[in-house]
Design brief:
Mean pLDDT: 91
Strand content: under 5%
Number of helices: 20
Distance between the termini: 18 Å
Shape: globular
Number of strands: 5
Structural class: mainly alpha
Strand order of the largest sheet: 1-2-3
Largest sheet: 3 strands, antiparallel
Amino acid sequence: MILTSGMQSQIRSRPIVSLTLAFFLVIGVWSILTPLFAGPDEPANYIKGAAIIRGVLVGEDVEPTSALSYWSTRIEIPYEYGVAMQVPWCFVPMPNTPACNRPMESLTPEEKPITNMGRYPPIGFVTTGLGSLIGPNDLSVRCGRLLNSLLGSLLLAIGCTLLTASRRSAIAILATTTPGVLFLSSVNSPSGIEIAASICLWSAMYSVFTSHETSILTKSGFVFSGSLVILVRPVGSIIYLITLAIGVIAYQKSSSWKSKIRDLLLPITIHLLSILTSAVWYFKIYNFHLAQSIVDQRTLPSLLDIVEQSINDLSVKIGESIGNYGWLDTPSPTFVVWFFIALVAIIIARNWQILANRNRVALISITLFVPIFMILLNLNYQNLLAAYGVQGRHLTPLIVGIPIIGGAIWNPKDATLRIVLISWTLSVFSCGAFALRRYSVGIQPLNFRTMFTQPVWQPMLGVAGTLCALAVALIVFGTIFYTVATKELK
């Protein structure tokens, strides 16, 4: 896609707007190719959002069971919203089974709506709830998805702008924005918001700690993304504190502590208030049933067993982080997983010699924190549910810090950026096609052609139309991203 000099100038003068549009096009098409409620826990997320936007923050208490978990509540909203729980079970989580078309309007409510997200913090469900204002129908689910997509796109755009404005590598953003991130941002899921906010927060760290006087954009991005990371999920405060600690190790010089504290007094105060709010919610609401164990503690594995299993599962969870679509039933093609692993490895290897010692310490620290965090989460899951419940998306907010820290001062050549951007685009397109095949005909040997000739399910644009739309969106994205990323080189 060729741009005139005037168009290039407009894009570079409004990088946040341009990049938000670019990310939104790709994520929006991904939302179209994914059947409704095919996102992880999307029915429960939709009901939770519909409740919050109607003033029901928690709902009626439900006794914890292995099926309903500790956080389930019944919601006093129109019963028609509860049919969301009936939709996806005709194909989730069965990768060999195509999706089915079950409009919400065609289903009959069976009971008062219930959601296993009832005691989760409300902030991650607001955009979903805004979409639900249209009514209990498929259109409201799509609107909620698009609002989530827009928020995620804005956060990714701010993060990318902060990196490029600091003359840091835009390749780091490509390495963090995996197909899994695009997928989670395209559905009704607080995980998509959490991960996009984490990418933005990691990206803001360099400017926050290295600038003598932090700009309004940097402060705003830091405050906005940090507050979302803290408030969206119960463990958000821990992720934020780890991120902040790594940022201090990587960039903050001890000689400038006083001036930096004065400069960041307001942002840090807002984050401390967010942590206090999160803590109150955790101990008063989220923690309500956790003392009532539903498992026999005597049957639980030892700490050593949990450590061993977690380390053994780490490679699988990294693959899930890069991209596993639906309810962990559609992993990315192997070559895509290896592309993103290789990209991160190249970033680190290319920059290791020019990194300051404190950057190296920070990079090693965050790399070690990922498995430690996974072990702690699995320990908690075992105590509560007697299961190894960690998924790749739970680790992604920390994993994305690795390429961003590793690409600390890299300013790659124009040709290098082109190669990586083209490879990234092809990888994302391949994952989109693979996911669409799963939903249209199911994952069967040698049936890619069948998804065009005999699709059992297809999105509103059709299979071929959706893939064409994804290709166009990726071309537009690549053009805008390249134009912004090379701004300082022109």
